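Incident log, structure service

09:12 report received: a user says their structure output differs between two submissions of the same chain.
09:20 pulled the input from the user's history:
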Amino acid sequence: MSADACALGPYRADLVETYWRWEQDPGLLVGYGRQQPESLEARTEGMAHQLRGDNIRFTVYDLAPGSPVPVGVTTLLPDHAVRTAEYVVMLAPEARGCGLGTRATRLTLDYAFHVTNLRMVWLKVLAPNTAGVRTYEKAGFRHAGALRSAGYWLGRSCDEVLMDALAEEFAYPSVVRTLVEGGAGSDEPAA
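09:34 re-ran on a clean worker, output below:
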């Protein structure tokens, strides 16, 4: 799936070292609230488990350079009993700040609502991560609340902001619909 020079493709075992490199970035470690790096060996072992799991994972590609360049991962952690999922995104340091996070998030929501038939997708983001909060807002997430003092940012406790996106409020052109219907209704907001 692609739109606006951004694409989602399969999560790939051959990119484990690339994913691992992104995950070691201090900005990502702080943003996720994770407190320690992971070895490449441990990450490689975890990859096999992830590929067999029920979570929905995509590699994010930047199409602007001409040929697809992997720049991140989006993940949906579904709860099939209630047709919702938690959303997680990881972008390479060099891919941040140019709108790819927003575009990848919209594509993942499109897939979540129109292929997986989820009714709601939610996320947690550390309150001081204002760039992340803005990205999620631009992609269609709304503030749903906060978990007070639930996270850490640069050594200080902080709130985790809860955000959600509902299928009936997805107001962007649906790439999934365009692919399925052959272009019919591509200018209509998805329902």
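09:41 both user submissions now match this output. Likely a transient worker issue. Closing.
09:42 reviewer note: The first helix runs from residue 16 to 23. The radius of gyration is 16 Å.
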